[in-house]
Amino acid sequence: MHPIGLYLHLPFCTRICHYCDFVKSALYSEEQKKAYLHSLESLLDDYLKVWDEVPGVSSQLYSVFWGGGTPSLVTHEIAPIMRKILAHTAPDAEITLEANPEHINEESLRIWASHGINRISLGVQSFHQEGLKALTREHTAEQALEAVRLVRRFIPNCNVDLIYGWPGQTERDWAEDIAQLISSGATHASLYNLTFEGSTPFARRVARGKMHAIDDDRLYGFYETACRLMTIADYEHEEVSNWHLPGHEARHNGLYWHGGSYLALGAGAHSFLQELGPYGTRWQQSGNWRTFVPEPMTTLQGIITRQYNQIDGDRGIEAWILEVVSSGLRTSRGINISAIELKSGYSLVPRPILCQALELGLLWHDKEGQLFLHELEWFRETRWSLEVALSFIQA
Question: Which CATH class is domain 2-254?
C-alpha cells in the first residue's frame, strides 16, 4: 500500500513578507478565521468518507503538515481537526506545524504537542538583524535563537528555514547564519535562495529597477558554502534546499520529491494522487480563501471536480517523465531509470551533454538503475532535468 500525506493550508498572517508568493492575507476577522477552519474540517470529513475509493493507498496517514500563511496564529483552534486526523494517522507519523519565532512560547508549544504536533518548522530566515529587516520579518535575531531553544525543549524535532541572497548579504553573513543554525541543535534545515515570484512586492520592485537580485554566481557560492558547512556538521543533504541530522529527514516533503500521494486542503493547496490515472492526478483549490466553502460531496470524483478546483488535465507520458526527473534528480535518492522505462515505455539514450557529464562524474548510475546528479549540481537542476528528460525516447 502506498503511503499518503495530508497538507492543510492556513492563509492568515499578521503582516505580509515582501518575498512570499503563497496564498495569504493579513486582512481577516476572527469570524472569518473560524469559518475557514470549519470549512477545512468539512472538507477533511468529505475525504475521510471516500477514502476507500483511492486504490492502493494506505488507510493511515504517513505525514501531516500545517502550512501557510502562519499556522502558529492558532493553537486550540486546531483541536477538532487534529482529533479526526489522529484517528487516521500511523503511530509514527510526522506531524509538522509551521511557526514564526515571535509566536513561540511555552503555552503554545504545550498546546500543539497535546494535539499531536511532533515537529515544528520555524520560519527564522536569518539570524542577522540586517537580514530580518531586508526580508521584512517581524521577529528579532534574539527571538529567533530563543525560539529554536524553546521549541527543542518541548518538541525536539525542529526544522529551521533560512534564506540566502537577501540585499546586502555577504558570504560572512551567510556562514554566520549557518553556524547559528548548527549550534542551535535544529534537527533539520531548509536553506532557500531568495526568489522574486509572481506579484510579490519584491518582484514588483525588481521589475521597476528599484531592487536587484544577486547574480547566479554569487548565489551558487552561497550554496557551495552551505554544502560544505552542513556536511562538516554531520547534516545529510537530502534535497537541494534541505539537510537533516541522521534520523530526521523530512518525511512529508519526501512525498513531494519522490512522486508520493498527498491530499492538500485549503485555499491554493495542490493535491496529487499517484493511484488515479496512468500518471496520477493533480488538482489545485482556488486561491480565494474567502470563498472557500466546500459543498457536500459523496464521491472522490465529486470532491476533485468541485467548481473551485483546477485539475491538471494535460499529464501525458513526457510531462510525467519531466516531473519525475525534475523532482528526483535534485535529491540524494536520484531517479530510477528502470522504473521510468518500465512505466513509460521510453528508454534512456543519453544526449551528448549527458554523455560528457557521465564521463566527468557529474552524473552516475548504479547497478539498480538509479541515476544520481552530483550534489553541487543540484543547484542547476533545471538544466540537467531537461537534458535527462529529453534523453528518454520512445522505444
Answer: alpha beta
